[in-house]
Amino acid sequence: RFAINLNVRGIQPSATLRINELSNQLKAEGKDIIKLGLGQSPFPVPQRVVDALKDHAHEKDYLPVKGLKSLRESIAGYINRSERMRCTWEDVLIGPGSKELLFILQLAYYGDLLIPRPSWVSYAPQARIIGRSVHWLPTHAENNWQLTAEELDIICRDDASRPRILILNYPSNPTGCTYTDDQLLAIANVARKYRLILLSDEIYGEVQFDGKHKSIARYYPEGTIISTGLSKWAGAGGWRLGTFIFPKELHALQDAMAIIASETYTSTSAPTQYAAIAAFDGGDDIEEYLKQSRRVLKVVGEYMHSRLSAMGAVVQKPEGAFYVFPDFSNFRDELARKDIKTSQAFCQSLLENTGVAILPASDFGFAPDHLGARLAFVDFDGADALQLAGEDQTGQ
Ligand code: PLP
């Protein structure tokens, strides 16, 4: 009686959400589960942002499709402060999570999608849902899984004028690695040469452990869209607020996305948009919250790295976000004896036998037999950890 769209057939529900539901189910059955699957911030939303949400709970009207003007101004100010750019409120688009904005970007734009392997679980399925072709760009563990300008050039050289979007995500989900200024500059130069649209996914920018996160938009301002939101640095994933910041040259693309938004979700919830102003305006309390978040994540990330290395896995030290991406190929023979030959089977067996939930490398673009996995080191009490980090610093 009905036919499912062919593009959707064969796509599993989002890998991270699937593992989260399975972990919750096992927990509800009384099993002791360590949830290292879903990449959700362990920290509470900063108090002033929660207060702003409460103060605006009565705001009930539909808001403008591109977002509340005062929030767009606040985000422009945030980007100008942190990236020394000169954007204005008209450059900012608000949506219900950056995931939704990424999806409507792909709907609005005609061209191929380029993503480094490994990349976040949702970019490729989103492209497949709308029938767009995906080109995975090779990266290598020895090189911290970073895309190089040379590899990008090789792919783009073939049919140089083809319209393409490159998504670059740093600090990276799933590797926790980020790029140096020189690497960003080199990639920016290739992007300009081939007139790529560069979607710079900086959702973890504020949780880079050391040094200041810098956007590639500094080096390719005319072609870069910055993507960020409240989910990862303000702990508010479930509030669903993401934002894209466009250069003037790409305002037509922003307008096209707004048409799709107007015919689909209309706008992000009003109280959330008012509350987000408090987060993006910043202040001493937000700075302190971010400082302690980074300290905690760095300590946990280093612990994960050292334990996994000691165990014999090959793993890069995370520089930001809350992920590590170990390779367990050293255990290939041992696992094969237990008939475990794919990352999916490895993760399944780990969950069933030890109660540890992690995500297989196959969800991040690898062939099934690449014995890697992503661990999200977020299964701890974030409120306690922030308090301890603060006390530790003040010597209490
Ligand atoms: N980009 C990356 C790399 C992510 O890891 C996530 C969430 O896991 C998102 C985008 C989407 O975040 P949100 O839709 O909550 O803004």
Automatic annotation (TrEMBL):
GO terms for molecular function: transaminase activity. Gene3D superfamilies: Aspartate Aminotransferase, domain 1, Type I PLP-dependent aspartate aminotransferase-like (Major domain). PROSITE patterns: AA_TRANSFER_CLASS_1. Its EC number is 2.6.1.-. Residues 31-368 form the Aminotransferase class I/classII large domain. SUPFAM superfamilies: PLP-dependent transferases (SSF53383). Keywords: Aminotransferase, Pyridoxal phosphate, Transferase. InterPro entries: Aminotransferase_I/II_large, AspAT/PAT-like, NHTrfase_class1_PyrdxlP-BS, PyrdxlP-dep_Trfase, PyrdxlP-dep_Trfase_major, PyrdxlP-dep_Trfase_small. CDD domains: AAT_like (cd00609). Its cofactor is pyridoxal 5'-phosphate. Belongs to the class-I pyridoxal-phosphate-dependent aminotransferase family. This is Aminotransferase. It comes from Marinobacter xiaoshiensis. The lineage of its organism: Bacteria, Pseudomonadati, Pseudomonadota, Gammaproteobacteria, Pseudomonadales.
